Amino acid sequence: MLKTTPLAAAVMAIFATPLYAQTAAPNAPAGTQVAQAPAGTPDAKTASDGAAAADGSAPGATLPAVKVTGQTDANDDFQPEMSSVGAKIPTALRDIPQAAVVVPKAVLQSQAASSFTDALRNVPGITIAAAEGGSIGNNINLRGFSARTDIYLDGFRDRGQYYRDTFNLESIDVLYGPSSLYFGRGSTGGVINQVSKQPTLKPRADVSVQAGTSDRYRTTVDLNQPITDTSAFRINAFGQSLGSTRDVMKSKDYGVAPEVKFGIGTPTEITLSALIQHNRDQPDYGVPSLNGHPASVVGPSTFYGFTNDRTIQDVQTFSARIKHRFNENVTLSNQTQYSHYSTDVRASNPAAVLTGPLATSPALSNGNFTTLSPSQLFVRMQGKDRVINDHSIYNTTELETKFATGFLKHDLLTGVDLSHETYGNQSYTATTPGLPSNTIAIVPLLNPPYVPTPSNLQITRGNLAESSANGIGIYANDTVSIGQHWKVVGGVRWDRYEASINNSINAPGYAAQTNFFTSVRGGVIWQPTDWQSYYVSYGTSFDPSLEALTLTNGQQGLPPVHNKSYEVGSKWDLLGGGLSLTQSLFNIEQTNARTQNVDGTYTLDGNIRVRGYQLGVAGRITNKWQVFGGYTYMDGEIVEARDGTQGNVPANTPRNMLTLWTTYAITPQWEIGGGPVYTGPRYAATNNRVEVPGYTRWDAMAAYHQKHYDVQLNLINLTNKHYFDQVIASDGGRAVPAQGRTFLATVNYRFY
What we know:
GO biological process, one term: siderophore transport
Number of helices: 5
GO molecular function: siderophore uptake transmembrane transporter activity; signaling receptor activity
Domain TonB-dependent receptor-like beta-barrel: 280-718
Main location: membrane
Structural class: mainly beta
Largest sheet: 22 strands, antiparallel, barrel
CATH topology: Maltoporin, Chain A
Mean pLDDT: 89
Membrane topology: Multi-pass membrane protein
């Protein structure tokens, strides 16, 4: 029997003709989205002739495609049509020559997804890394590469180390592949942009109250109020107290996001906004590894740490934007954003696994393989105390012009990015007298005690890292329409990135570098009909050594790492435009990856490559049945390396990932839904010594809808699956157990 690889099967699928692409049921129920058949088909001819008989137009005249939405509420639609992440201005997804996923607010509300991490479960190719040392907060991997500094808020880099919430988000937009053309440094696997809610001229107030098992309570408020005929004010706020199926874990957070917009619908619009958020959470550094896997013998609720550990985070972000439309062809905009992030951490983590209860007991290594019983093993607890302060100010000026040169139509975007960033990280060493430096306690692997930190703990000030960076980027991107069916996208960007770091103790004491880089992007789009789009694209990006304003000794003299991506894909709008189907083949390669030599120095002679296939679906199968999901296949390999990892799989890069969420309206009032999230096995570190098992998690929901209120029930992890959600390479490879079965009840009330 002939066997077909996933990539070969994907190639055939991309170019296969969808047999039922524009077939609409002849007796479609009210509310079904209907579009006319593409011009030139027999159905289009019949439709145009029928229209001529009805309105008196000439026989054979072709009418434009019409999309009719019946009794559906756009706020409840799973199918996004536009994204600002692919071109920094709202662009139809079919006109972006790269894979992009937009997770709309309707999906998040249906899933009761309140955290940034929960929201990203809807995006194939994203895996979560646990907090570690100086990397507190949301640590994301995208298509096998770290995206911690590739998270954006309304188009600006959201570089702070904090746990983000969805209370003020309209959507989360993800663009895959190197994209330094628009975003500057980073974006190896892609970028993630949080899109904030905007004031509108329609008054409305929404209040949501939620309660759940494990002492989970949450309230959100969304108030929108017009001020004049062309201005409005909107404020979103939340507060929550969350327990967990994990022992000891708890968090208390709140936030507010006010925004005012002037000149709505006029040539000049001015928007002022802010995000103020406070988190007080229990840090969770997971469980150690044992015999090449996370130590599942300790049970899913076991917590390693002290009861008075805490992470305190404060975020203040302020933005101002002015946009002036000179005419329908020329628009100029300028936006400034200032952010301050502070993180105060008192935390402890399970470090080495020991073969005895004494500080002199030997430590396991290389995956912690042992024949000893888990009851004979112990864990060294270390401190991760630190105070982190991030400041950033960004300014972007963009000019969009539309014009024609002969038969070519241009949509040209030019811009200038300016940035200034500072970073400070003061670490501390915590030691209990009688134990080795930076050792707080030695606890049993099984049933560690839940107690406060020792009263005689000695805290010593450690290294203070202080960094700053200045950047300037100048870019231009042109989308050229050639007739009705072809578009060519091309752009170039020049960056200057100057950064320095000073360490009080660690090496290097001081380091500075100035990087210059030119990024390019190109793509060709073929759209034979109004429901089909096929593309090929190429893009590049760069990663300086001081990209995150932190530096490993030995890398200070290295030039930036280069990344490039090739992609081919298709985007279809099926079932009368109600259902979007996307798929792509991609190849991302880091051609001069940093690799460590035997003597501890680093050189740029490594090579990391991730190839794969991605499938996405979003929209309505019928007017009652919605779906949102995706699948990705990632074949990651460290092609070249000097540190012994050549031939291995990059850390936190599973081969297969699947996410699917679907809802069905049984009646106009009653709705049910659910779906799985699957992540295949992955390695905690590039040495591939600790493998984290794959898992499938199932969620479900039921809701009762009325005009002014909803009652919604969500069951998270309904089978109570024990799996590991986040991984980190440190200490041989640690993993964080996921939340167990959780029941949530939500009441939403709307004031019109």
